[in-house]
Amino acid sequence: MTVDLTGREYPAVGPYHVGSEDIRNFANAVKNMHPLHHDIDAARAAGHKDLVAPPTYLVTIAQRAEALMVNDPEAEVDFSRVVHADQRFTHHRAVVAGDELFAQATVTSAKELAGNRLLTTATEITNADRAPIATITSTLLIRG
Amino acid sequence: MPAIEHLTKGDVIATRTIDINRADLIRYAGASKDFNPIHWSDATAQQAELPGVIAHGMLSMGLAVDVVTEWTEDPTAIIDYQTRFSAMVPVVETTQTFDPARPFENPNPGAALNVTAKIGAINEETRVVRVDLSVTNPADDDARVLTRAQVQVQL
């Protein structure tokens, strides 16, 4: 029988340094061509200290926190059977190049459905001052 | 920034067709650090009983939201974005049709997404508008790739 993971908190990971080239690369990969993601002068003119991350950029950091659950032996996640079921980003403030971010994942739901398992994590992204940056919720479906 | 006074629930604010090819999957894997081989290895996809190499769900989610960014003219106005992933998007191998100097300009994409963005709700008090995204795959009988894809925009 699988251990009930609901409520399990994993340690914060980080710091992750958000770099301007990393933002540009990610923005190009999702074809987000707004100048705030690419042009530092445009970003500064809009009041930001550097390039602004696209709306889904933080998945790159959140997934490293979620990896602690995926690799937790008690979670028994067979990665070859994993499908991404849902995803949510709640942004508290903009992410810009130069930020130092931390990510801490908590399992908020673990359930079985029609022979499959659904594991939901909420990952809190904070900055170096521990101020909230974003909350990222993700559900993985492990096919039975 | 769009004027909230001029919006009506149900307004279509954007439509776009977004092509995806294998080079896009490789680029997204690198940018996101999600190197799961089901997104680039035919043999692995077959072993996992998938319909072929499939696009990252997060790639579709990231591609689709750009219509909202373009509409708001400010990506930081997007305060919340959620979706469920429904139909997978198989990306057919068309690499041989690339101009090798322009790998992201393949005239024969391996897949495409049809994106429509509509005003789903308007809150005049908080000045938050919900934009509902429809994201479908024309090669798969217009299957819904994203379901309940909702973007909250602070105007």
List keywords for this structure.
heterodimer, A: 144 residues, alpha+beta, 19% helix, B: alpha+beta, 5-stranded antiparallel sheet, 4 helices, 34% strand, elongated
Could you characterize the architecture of this molecule?
The complex is a heterodimer of chains A (144) and B (155). Chain A has 144 residues and is α+β, with helices and mostly antiparallel strands. Chain A is built from 3 helices and 5 strands, in the order βαααββββ. Chain A has helices at residues 20-29, 40-45, 59-70; strands at residues 13-17, 82-91, 100-113, 116-127, 132-142. Chain A has a 5-stranded antiparallel β-sheet with strand order 1-3-4-5-2. The longest helix of chain A has 12 residues, at 59-70. Chain A is elongated. Chain A starts with 12 loop residues before the first strand and ends with a strand. Chain B is of the alpha+beta class and 155 residues long. Chain B is 21% helix and 34% strand. Chain B has 4 helices and 5 strands. Chain B has a 5-stranded antiparallel β-sheet with strand order 1-3-4-5-2. The mean pLDDT of chain B is 95. Chain A binds chain B through residues 22, 25-26, 28-34, 36-37, 46, 52, 54-56, 59-60, 63-64, 79-91, 94, 137, and chain B through 18, 24, 27-28, 30-34, 36, 47-48, 56-59, 61-63, 65-66, 69-70, 73-76, 78-85, 151.
